[in-house]
Amino acid sequence: MEYDTETSPYTTSDQTSFAYVSARDRWPVILTGAIDDLHRAITPCKDDEKITDGKTIVEGLTKLKYELQHNRPLTPLTDDGRQDVGDYNRDLNALGSPTWFNVPWLYAECYLYRRMSTFFALSTHWKSYDVFARQKLSTFVSSRPAVLELAAKYKQLINQLKSNVPDSKTPEEKRDAEKLLFFEMCEICLWGNATDLSLLTALTYDDIQKLQGSEARKVQEKNILVNDLPAAYRTLKAAQNTDPKGERRVDIVLDNAGFELFVDLILAGYLLAAGLATQIVLHPKSIPWFVSDVLPADFASLLNALADPQALYAAPSNNNKDHVGAPTPLSDREVSELSFLFEHWSSLHREGQLTIRPNLFWTGPGSYWRLPSSAPDLNQDLKESELVIFKGDLNYRKLAGDAMWSTIVPFSDALGPMGPGSGIRTLALRTCKADTVVGLPAGEDERLKGMEGGGGDTGARKWAWSGKWAVVQFCDGKA
Predict the structure, then answer these.
(1) This model's pTM is above 0.90
(2) Whole-angstrom distance, CA of residue 27 vs CA of residue 112
(3) Which residue intervals of 122-204 are DSSP H helices?
């Protein structure tokens, strides 16, 4: 904890924060869902040892839920062989004997998922089981309209970028078009976060559809409170112009699986086809994390789904329970467009232009202020990148130490050791779903609090909890 910001963190005892709501309301629901999922997986089992093994995990999850709901002290993690157990237990020891309702929010939430993972790691038959995988797939199926819209647009775009057919645009018009396309691709990637499963636990099939698609994005543009995409574009374009035939890498620290991973791959494929990067490195999590975060297996699952999209979207077994009636089969054109994605992304992966690089650091107990000291090899590796894109709310919270900053503190200041002089260029694409927000103009927080449901005089920054508002913030750590 010696490398974390000295600015106080949000805690689960703060009744004005989303931490308070999360600990009391969200986390028990998430644990209940995990228990129910495992029960469903155990039921068809014929192997008595596997059944007993699964029931032991259910007992552990049930005990964890009881401790949480009854405000018991957090206990040291059982050693399951992973190197980060010591990190978690050292932090817990430094915190004293915190209880669930009086502990730094970031640590407690990371501890929750890390402790859940120990039950599976210590099992015999369930080591690689992901209790959230079923939800991830279900949400991707529910995202069908947006998936089909983007698949059609992506195929057309990639073919245009590859064709090199002369057009009637002037050089200035072409430059403007390229820039606007970059902005739209990044904004698609930004709002793909709207399907964060750990927050949107009660959405129906129709609700999820409303969060996605081009019309929704146009409405949401005005809700981007800070937009540093022009600076990020200038950075990538300058690198391209300086060394057009050289290696230029962009990293994406992933957030959610399902539809969001789909749009992350849309962005990755576009950056490569447009020549803004020659290699994309994706950074997933190593263990099931915050319900919907990407694991390496989720990448393979998505590609497998796209390899046979008709089976995914037209099979009755995959029909979302909230969607009334039999699913409509995909048209031949829709199948062709989704198959194009599978072939294109698989080709990029085979050729080494699209790689996956997990690291235990991403599921550690602390903030990214610790990166240089806790993961020096990863820190050095990220310096090789032209731009590191951090997706989603948790990555933003970790970048800023999940601290109680004034909203007018510059983004670069809140990054601490990852800010100016770090050697790492950071772009955060974040829809706000937690209290920590920095880099806003003076008076903006007060204006948003004054809106209906924004928090008003309660002291709560409720406007930042819903995912309605977003920030896109850039820091050039190489400057």
Answers:
(1) yes
(2) 8
(3) 133-142, 144-163, 171-191
